[in-house]
Amino acid sequence: MDIRIENFTKRFDKTTVIEDLSLTVRDGEMMALLGPSGCGKSTTLFAICGVYTFDEGRLFFGERDVTGLASQKRNVGVVFQSFALYPHLTVAQNIGFPLKVRGESRAEIDRQVRSAAEMVRVPELLDRRPGQLSGGQQQRVALARALIRRPDVLLMDEPLANLDAKLRLDMRTEIRRLQQETGITAILVTHDQVEAMSMCDRIAIMREGRILQIAAPRDMYDRPDDTFVAGFLGNPPINFVETQVVDGHCRTQRDTVRVPLPERLIGLPAGAKLTLGVRPEFVQPSHHTRFTGRITFIESQGREDLFDLELEDGTVLRSIQSVGARVGVGDAVEWGISPHDVLFFDDAGQRL
Amino acid sequence: MTRQAWLGFGFLAPATLFVVAFFLAPVVMTGFFAFTNMSTATGITGGTYRITEGVISRLAGSEDVPAPLIEALGQQQSVVDPTGLAALAQGDFDAAFVAELEEELGGRTFASQRELEGAIRDLDNRPRRVRDIKAAAELFERSVLNVDFATQADFAEAIQAYAGPVPDTAMTALARAAYTGWSMTTDNFSRLFNSPELGTVAVNTVFYIFATLTLFNTGFALVLAITTFYLPSRQASFFRTVWLLPRISPPVLYVLLWKWLAWDTGFLNAVLEPLGVAGRNWMFDSETSAWTFVILINGFVGASMGMIILSSAIRAIPQPILYASAVDGAGRLQQIRHIILPQLRWPLLFITSYQTLSLLTSFEYILLSTDGGPGSTTEVWALAAYHTALRNYAGNLQYGYGAAMALVLVVFGIAMSFVYLRLFNFKALVGRPRIEQ
Question: Is the confidence metric ipTM above 0.85 for this complex?
Answer without folding.
Answer: no
